[in-house]
Amino acid sequence: MLHLSVALEEYLVARNDLSPKTLEDYHYYLRRWLEFAGDVDLAEMKRADLERFMAYMRDEYRTRAGKPLSQAGLANCWTALRSFWHWASDSRVELANISEGLRAVKVPEPVVEPFTKDEAQALIEACYRTALAKTEQRRSFRYTRHEAYRDVAILLVLLDTGIRVGELHRLNVGDIDLHRYELEVRPFRSGVKSHPRVIPFTRDTQAALLRWLSQRKELGEPLDRDGELLSDAPAFTILSSGERFPVRAVEHMLARLGKRAGVSKVHPHRFRHTFAIEYLRNGGDPWTLQRMLGHSTMEMVRRYLNFAKEDIRGAHSRASAVARWRFHIPK
């Protein structure tokens, strides 16, 4: 007999090849499954039990905010169940994979919405000042932010290289070559979703990184014999502690910048979308883009291409001589 609670603990320990974010998501949905099903014997479970659980998550379950689970959340739940049962049937000969045939959840294609130049500029400027504050005399002022150099460097790296926020989180100082204007992305463990690659960046990004790394030297971080930051030190840190800047902290920082700048929907992946679309708009080829983004297939690149084509079509309709001059053509 193998109880569900024991199997879940074994699974979460065994799957240390998954990223922390994926593992956190799987843990969340599998715990909901345990609460729904009870601590049953895995050998007694049937696919119908999984279907009932998925129906519950779709129709009855509510998040902490009191909202129904989104289609993306439901798809993540389905993926967690499939992953667990693949592992269980592989590690226990007596168990059949009852998730085979479990209906997949269709998720609408994500809306690709890049930043405009003005929005990106507003975000950069918001890095340097806090939100508007008032004194008792009702005079408005803004504080200069100590984290400005770090946050500008993060914005420009995301926008200039298109790397994922998890890849940004894992960057070390030694992964950034300021002389060659490039950074190396190291995969996370198995490298399933993050392929090793070297990505160039521009002078503006190099200057922002140099300011940020110089600030850290002045703050007294450990240096090597050449007076440089240690190569295995995290590239982006929490100023107060020197610890690696967590993914969630990056996400929250960007959201706060968006509020200060008056820009909506500011999240790490939108910088990746912007990088890809601007690359294609300005003549970049899709195969090089695929390598820089670290995609194993062209599926997502095709979405960017479709967006860029619509953009080109709109620009043509506005700029075409035939459209603007409105010829009178005899019939």
Radius of gyration: 25 Å
Roughly what fraction of the amino acids lie in strands?
Answer: under 5%
Query: Count of DSSP E strands?
Result: 5
DSSP summary: helix tally: 13
Main sheet summary: 3 strands, antiparallel
Note the topology:
Layout: H1 4-14, H2 20-37, H3 47-59, H4 71-91, H5 117-126, E1 133-134, E2 140-141, H6 148-161, H7 165-170, E3 176-177, E4 182-185, E5 197-200, H8 203-218, H9 247-261, H10 268-281, H11 286-293, H12 299-319, H13 321-325
Antiparallel strand pairs: 1-2, 3-4, 4-5
Helix pairs in contact: 1-2, 2-4, 3-4, 5-9, 6-8, 6-10, 10-12
Could you write a compact summary of the structure shown?
By secondary structure, the protein is mainly α. The protein has helices at 4-14, 20-37, 47-59, 71-91, 117-126, 148-161, 165-170, 203-218, 247-261, 268-281, 286-293, 299-319, 321-325, and strands at 133-134, 140-141, 176-177, 182-185, 197-200. It folds into two domains: 4-91, DNA polymerase, domain 1; 117-316, Orthogonal Bundle (hpI Integrase, Chain A), CATH 1.10.443.10.
